Amino acid sequence: MRPDLQELQALCKEVRRDIVKMTAAAGSGHPGGSLSSVELLVSLYFAKMRHDPQRPDWANRDRFVLSKGHVAPVLYSVLARSGYFPIDELLTLRKLGSRLQGHPHMLSLPGLDNSSGSLGQGLSQANGLALAARLNGQDYRVYCLLGDGELQEGQVWEAIMTAAHYKLANVCAIVDYNNLQIDGTVEEIIGLDPLDDKWKAFNWHVISIDGHDIEQVLAAYDEAESIKDKPTVIIAKTIKGKGVSFMENVAGWHGKAPNADELAKALAELAN
Hints:
two-stranded antiparallel sheet
């Protein structure tokens, strides 16, 4: 049974608190894009995706590929709160010997379906997992979270074309469209619009939503599952640093950890 809306919203607050605590404890990390992805991952793991923390290697589980791997803090928080490993371990982020590296390493931690590094590779990995399901007669779905700046990589568009060619209807790409990347706005670096039309031209089913509206997020995941003849992309308009006022829409928080004073301010805002 799905958690209700209030339960999911409360989980989002918990995850946001985890993110700022983890990055502050590490003294490094990527809070901005982690905070913008919270509703997308909380809704997926707690209300949609077929998975079992007690059986992380269950063959017919749905798969999740984090292509924008630098936002590992949001994924680690969701995995811990799903029961894959102790919540206390979150504060070991990026520390020597920790299982929680700056980019996820699937051989180190239960619940991970890919290892990430250089951006632009995740959708190709997702396609491979989806094709494996077809070849093995399995019905699992594959979800892949991409950043908007990441869509400037050519490999992403090769993967988009490949998924459409093979009619990988079990692939659902999710674009965290917060319009900020490390060097500024996406429009300033390499603009993406009209993004919906570009994906449609590659023969994908396209859903555009407010990525912080949990009801819209869940409806999009359900709609994506209903599409049987092509892959689906959910283009989620989001706010970088969502939930922490001084981080919102500020490119500088892409890869900067809060100091002690900033952590206290962030936690005060996230307390209500």
